[in-house]
């Protein structure tokens, strides 16, 4: 199997102030006085991972384990402190609800803005525009400001834009947990169609049932480190037993 994603010993380190600061003013004063003290925090530590082309791969773990951070590394939103990332193919990231959207712009304007941010040519977005609006089920709201949208509407629009043209790699972070059951199933049908056509899918979810239903392999992250990697049922069983 051809490899679509290579993560070579990825680590991310943050410098965090040792003391809780009341605001930016106190931070600036302490910084100019040279009184700030930091400790090093490893959000990810030595993650080595290969995901095959066309594979559906799950990432599980508790809140704060590093799941979303790892997905942002794959999306090139975060640059690792150590290690190397190789992504082979056009990547569509669905990382945070409304990421890349401007809430004062209309839904129509945000379709073109978000499409441009994920690398879609304007003519392709224009060709797919009606299909995007139809899939998101927001026809009567498309010219309203995004700030008037519900969280579910924003999620639907984000998913519709990111998946209007089949990506080679699709990164999904909990976006299917928002919206009604019917729309979740609609998203899953599109993902399964992409899967059948060879798209590589990486799914972060707290729903173990969803991960087991959709993925062949999984990674369990614990404290930024790989606790288990392998067959999805075995990894989920280990994670649930520990949890």
Question: What labels would you give this structure?
Answer:
243 residues; alpha/beta; Rossmann fold; six-stranded mixed sheet; three-stranded antiparallel sheet; 8 helices; 28% strand; globular
Walk me through this protein's architecture.
This protein is α/β, with parallel strands linked by helices. The chain has a single domain, classed as P-loop containing nucleotide triphosphate hydrolases (Rossmann fold), CATH 3.40.50. It is built from eight helices and nine strands. The protein has helices at about 25-30, 65-75, 105-115, 120-135, 150-160, 180-195, 210-215, 230-240; strands spanning about 5-15, 40-50, 55-60, 80-85, 90-95, 170-175, 200-205, 215-220, 225-230. The strands form two sheets. It has a six-stranded mixed beta sheet with strand order 5-6-7-3-8-9, with helices on both faces.
């Amino acid at each position: 199997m051809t490899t679509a994603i290579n993560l070579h010993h990825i680590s991310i380190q943050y410098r965090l102030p040792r003391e809780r600061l009341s605001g930016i003013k106190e931070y600036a004063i302490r910084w100019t006085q040279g009184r700030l003290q930091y400790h090093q925090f490893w959000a990810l530590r030595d993650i080595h991972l290969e995901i095959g082309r066309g594979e559906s791969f799950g990432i599980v773990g508790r809140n704060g384990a590093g799941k979303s951070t790892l997905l942002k590394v794959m999306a090139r939103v975060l640059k690792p402190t150590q290690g190397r990332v190789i992504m082979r193919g056009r990547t569509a990231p669905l990382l945070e609800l409304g990421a890349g959207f401007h809430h004062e712009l209309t839904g129509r304007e945000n379709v073109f803005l978000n499409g441009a941010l994920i690398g879609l040519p304007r003519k392709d977005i224009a060709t797919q525009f009606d299909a995007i609006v139809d899939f998101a089920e927001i026809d009567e709201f498309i010219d309203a400001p995004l700030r008037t949208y519900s969280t579910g509407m924003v999620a639907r629009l984000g998913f519709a834009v990111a998946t209007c043209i089949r990506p080679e790699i699709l990164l999904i972070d909990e976006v299917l947990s928002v919206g009604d059951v019917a729309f979740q199933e609609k998203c899953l049908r599109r993902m399964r169609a992409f899967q059948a056509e060879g798209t590589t899918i990486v799914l972060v979810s707290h729903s173990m049932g969803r991960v087991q239903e959709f993925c062949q392999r999984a990674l369990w992250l614990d404290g930024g480190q790989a606790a288990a990697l392998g067959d999805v049922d075995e990894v989920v069983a280990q994670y649930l037993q520990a949890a």
